[in-house]
């Protein structure tokens, strides 16, 4: 994975709220030895802040430190990410509280730009200009000042700065989107002035402009202009509004169901993803029921994430029984997806209910659904919250449970999550030592994968490269668990059953993996 690819993936994860995806990308970067660029640190910090971590926790996660490493001033890249997240959450003052001390130490353009935007949101034109003068050479800071001027009500100055900015460089899609989003909440004449900034051919610029206009008009409740922005986006730019864009527009609209209905009436498809965003904002049962009623009325089918949102809402109120009933409804309707299961597991994990959490994994496996990173994290969290397991007991419990229930899980991934949690919680080093993966291997991961080609089918090697951070494992797919084994694999295990492989590994040679490194891979 190259640094540029990592930057883009983390940026997308941050903008879409995919905190788990950002964590996965970050871990892959670390495993591959890819040094994180400043942009990667910013986007990763933004994503995990949006996921609910406090600034100190974000810094410790980024820097790979345990709890208790307090810093008086955060590194500028980390502060920039936290500031961006707080701006997105609508709290510009909290963003400035983190950004300003970091900028004094290191005026990173992304941090300065975020601070300029924060002052714009606070209608503080003087300080926005003052910060801009710290890095006047940065295009990023220049764009931030343009948007800040617009937010301060200085549309004329903002448009003049925009003309000056665009006269020196290719037009910036992000800038036109931000300006148009602002124009959407103002009088139509401002919208017309922004359109005048576009240059032909302007298909992509046009799509970004309509995107910003849709977001701006929907927030003010101007439904007719919002719908027109969406339909014009299709007709004039040829771009179809994404479900993520529609979800943001509908969720931030004062009348979400009315906007969704008008969009559907005008031929713009709406899926459950849009209403899931609205559900996330509900804090009362009446509000939840109203959103579900709107989905039924508009004939929008619920998906796995809809039920996951419902489970999380019940979890916040501690209603475990209701959460389990929702899970039963998911299974009855045959809805495929890990989200509802992992939502239940997270609730169980917070209460340290290890066996109950494992039972959900078994149900998930029986339904033919693969475990995702959240599943592994929930299992690890359950053990840590329960508190009575020694490291050795935890290892034995998961290995024995995997063998007993024939569940396709990689125990090493559970142990890796336990190590992360122990570091974050400041647990003593005994747990970390007990879970430590052997680092004295003579072969590199790439060399081990090449060696495995001789003893496993190509499909399993590809799975190994794609899914596992520790390739020194034995892969057993669902067909083999049912007794259908390849000739090479049968020769390698020398007649042992899958249960024996897990519980008795003394007969394995180095080519097949050590007793500390096994994984059951779901091939179903």
TrEMBL record:
Leader peptide range in chain numbering: none
Region: Disordered, residue numbers: 494-524
Q: Which GO terms describe its cellular component?
A: mitochondrion
Q: Which GO terms describe its molecular function?
A: mRNA binding
> One Pfam family this chain carries?
PPR
BP-aspect Gene Ontology terms: mitochondrion organization; RNA processing
Against PROSITE patterns, the record matches this protein to: PPR (PS51375)
Q: Which InterPro entries match?
A: Mito_RNA_Proc_CCM1 (IPR051114), PPR_rpt (IPR002885), TPR-like_helical_dom_sf (IPR011990)
PPR repeats (start-end):
2-36
Gene3D superfamilies to which the protein is assigned, alphabetical: Tetratricopeptide repeat domain
List the PANTHER family: MITOCHONDRIAL GROUP I INTRON SPLICING FACTOR CCM1-RELATED, PENTATRICOPEPTIDE REPEAT-CONTAINING PROTEIN PET309, MITOCHONDRIAL
What's the protein here called?
Answer: Pentacotripeptide-repeat region of PRORP domain-containing protein
- Which source organism does the UniProt entry give? Rhodosorus marinus
